[in-house]
Amino acid sequence: MDERKINVQIAERLTKIPPYPFMELRKKINAAKAAGVDVISLAIGDPVEPTPDAIIDELCLQARDPENHRYPTDEEKGMLSFRREIAVWYKERYGVTLDPATEILGLIGSKEGCHHFVLGTINPGDIVLMTDPGYPAYRSSILMGGGIPWSVPIRPENGYLPIFEEIPEDILAKARGMFLNYPNNPTGACATREFFDKLVVFAKKNDIAICYDNPYSEVVFDGQERLSFMSADGAKEVGIELNSLSKPYNMTGWRIGMAIGNAELIAAMSKVKENTDSGVFNPIQYAGIRALKSETGNIKKILQVYAARRQMVLRTIAKIGIDYNPPQGTFYLWVPTPKGMSSLAFTNLLFEKAAVVVASGNAYGQYGEGFIRISLTVPDDRLEEAMTRIEKAFTTPLP
Ligand SMILES: *Cc1c(COP(=O)(O)O)cnc(C)c1O
């Protein structure tokens, strides 16, 4: 028998995606854990509190019904009852009117939507703009869809909002899409209504489809207004908004979200879905309806939890001598490193001195250099322990 193996070819679209940037740190973490060190990770944004009981009960109930064991109904867009509930939720919480038939698409999470947006709208060689620092999945989606990613810097002095005038004309001429995300992961920055108006003008002038990723729309503090891009005049003419049940209802593992907005873009994404997956398992859509309909109490509850954790971390940041005035969104704190220290150096120092892992800012793009990201999605007692260790490690304020 011929024992030769084939030479497996890895698609270029995959080899273009940058590898995990912190292999060295990851190795150190694994070695420390193996040696029995109690490592606390504040690097990942994934709520630890469970999904509310009523949502789980609904899933269990619906899973018992054989009608639900078949391919999801109402085609690839999601159950009409789920889309109707999304329309009600958007009307109540954001004042946005949506047609469930043409302006709403159920998704297997907002991350999936990023990918389908590119597949549905971008041709090989088209440029897609994204903010830097930014959520790494945008770059991956753009590359997998054959597009060319172009980073638009966002900086603290501009409230982490992009300055459209900085984008070169030749880039704009080839740009067909743009990813934006406020409340922003990783910086925590929030958008404003004035910014939305500018975004609509920019998109129309340059024929750029907007993918506004809004999974933290509910995660805002200190009186910050909850905002949907779709509430802006003209937004539906230029783009879509992605949202998700992951963060407001502690449902990251369930994989359920939605795209809303421009009907043509929704139809294009829906065609991609029709030819890729067959939609979300009906019982999960029923559970989603339950969440949207009756679990806003959970949002209030988790916001209080995150607010208290925010204060806990901010106290420590101040105590170790870092000057930081946080924006009001998301469950992340985007903290400047001590003067002159790189993101990776500070990340390493926190790990070596306190066995605390944070996300190094440069993982989110070149303009993330000089920052670390701390996630508040860890149990209170673990966060408290992490902060105690950090304070002890830096008993004298850093220079
Ligand atoms: C968490 C997160 C997502 C993923 O949401 P899912 O609905 O769970 O896929 C998308 N975008 C950003 C910016 C996120 O932080």
Task: Give the helix/strand layout.
Layout: H1 12-15, H2 23-34, E1 40-41, H3 53-63, H4 80-94, E2 104-107, H5 110-121, E3 127-132, H6 137-144, E4 148-153, H7 169-174, E5 175-180, H8 193-206, E6 209-213, H9 235-238, E7 239-244, E8 257-261, H10 263-274, H11 282-294, H12 296-319, E9 332-336, H13 343-354, E10 356-357, E11 359-360, E12 371-375, H14 380-393
Parallel strand pairs: 1-10, 3-4, 3-5, 5-6, 6-7
Antiparallel strand pairs: 2-8, 7-8, 9-12, 11-12
The protein binds pyridoxal-5'-phosphate (PLP).
Pyridoxal-5'-phosphate (PLP) is lined by residues 45, 109-111, 135, 181, 185, 213, 215, 244, 246, 252, 257.
Overview of this protein structure:
This protein has 399 residues and is α/β, with parallel strands linked by helices. The chain has 2 domains: 12-50 and 298-393, Aspartate Aminotransferase, domain 1 (Alpha-Beta Complex); 53-294, Type I PLP-dependent aspartate aminotransferase-like (Major domain) (Aspartate Aminotransferase, domain 2). Helix content is 40%, strand content 14%. The chain has helices spanning 12-15, 23-34, 53-63, 80-94, 110-121, 137-144, 169-174, 193-206, 235-238, 263-274, 282-294, 296-319, 343-354, 380-393, and strands spanning 40-41, 104-107, 127-132, 148-153, 175-180, 209-213, 239-244, 257-261, 332-336, 356-357, 359-360, 371-375. Strands 2-8-7-6-5-3-4 form a 7-stranded mixed sheet, sandwiched between helices. A 3-stranded antiparallel sheet has the order 9-12-11. It has a two-stranded parallel ribbon with strand order 1-10. Helix 9 links the parallel strand 6 (209-213) and strand 7 (239-244). The radius of gyration is 22 Å and the shape is globular. Pyridoxal-5'-phosphate (PLP) binds at residues 45, 109-111, 135, 181, 185, 213, 215, 244, 246, 252, 257.
